[in-house]
Amino acid sequence: MDDKVDLMNRDPNNINQHVQSNFEDVLAEPDGTRSADCVWIYSAKCFNGGKSCCYIFLSALCGIFLGLFWGCGFAMISFEQIWCATPMYRCFSIYAIYVQKCVGTYLSCYLGPLCETCGLCFSRIRIDKSG
After folding, report:
1. What residues form the membrane-spanning segments (predicted)?
2. CB neighbours of 21 closer than 8 A, spacing ≥ 6?
3. Domain extents for the chain?
């Protein structure tokens, strides 16, 4: 197991691109509707500073515990898939082959000849529409 963590690229698989929340992605003033330049500049600084401080605080407060929680959660999912679901599916597949053979034998031995006999009996019926 590789315990090294890439501190530069923390989303190498781009799984959280939908959470982009830069100032320009959230707030925008269209042409003809503009605040004073100082308001726009300080709003951007407050947005970025507040977002950074809040994220750092929340991740420091909860990140380790949530990392443990999600690690245990995915471990339980892996355990369930490896030790329960996959063997149960394999067992079901084995029994399904047996049931398929039994049903196939029943259909070909009993229902097949019955349907063939009915087909032969009803094939001699003629309907005259002329009358």
Report:
1. 55-79
2. 51
3. 36-122
